[in-house]
Design a protein that fits this description.
The structure is a single chain. The chain is of the alpha/beta class and 268 residues long. The protein has one domain: Aldolase class I (TIM Barrel), CATH 3.20.20.70. Helix content is 43%, strand content 14%. It is built from eleven helices and eight strands. α3 links the parallel β3 and β4. α1 runs parallel beside α2. The longest helix has 26 residues. The two termini are 15 Å apart. The structure holds 1,3-dihydroxyacetonephosphate. The site of 1,3-dihydroxyacetonephosphate has 14 residues, from β8.
Amino acid sequence: MMGAVRPVIVAANWKMHTTAAEAAALAGAIAAVIDEPAVTRVICPPYVGLAAVRDALAGTGIEVGAQNVHHELAGPFTGEVSAPMLQGLASWVICGHSERRRDAGETDALIGRKVGRALEHGLRPILAVGEQLADRQAGRAEEVVAAQLAGALGGPEPAVAESLVIAYEPVWAIGTGRNAHGADAAAMAGSIRRALARLGWRDAAERVPVLYGGSVTAANIGEFLAEPSIDGALVGGASLKIDEMAGIVARAALTARARAGVQGGSNG
Ligand code: 13P
């Protein structure tokens, strides 16, 4: 890989788990065991826990993310939260998670507007894409993901596109205990970068970190990080467990240091 070494990122998606008080306590406990500055670490609690988690993580270097953002800035949208409202609470936001595509009917176009709002407001979007099992079995996984990217990122590349992160989360691997093969995830990461380049998002194509998500654990994270095209993980169930997070981030730190060392060595 040419150019600057990409960061290694571990993002915890707590989904609809934890009250604010529980989130603060869990964030504090996890922070104590993932003190690895070589890894970009992000915790995404439910909205109501953002402030408490931000406070619990102050001074740790661990960043806070939201799990969603509305595509408008303000207005008659009951129950929704806009990008300006997240300022000071979160610096990342997950956009287009498959659970929102499924349960809230989010389309690629809508998700693209969320990504745009996040970028405009200095939030780093983690754009989640991934195919259904039937798509993979039919050999259409890369085509489906490329179409998701085209639908969401159809417009011109914004100047701040370098803060974009893509999470490849095959739907059949989420919450099932059935993770993808590292090699398949790596092939998809390459396909994602080619799709971004075809869309004209050239800076993003070169620099975008691609994370894998779907039944990631401390036991299998190494299979993904062994692939040079994969830059970390978006972790669901295991991210609520202190020991799992300790193991995942410890393994990610090995990769981060190795990649930085290789880059330093080869570039003198
Ligand atoms: P699991 O790690 O529980 O499979 O969830 C993955 C995910 O959806 C993260 O966003």
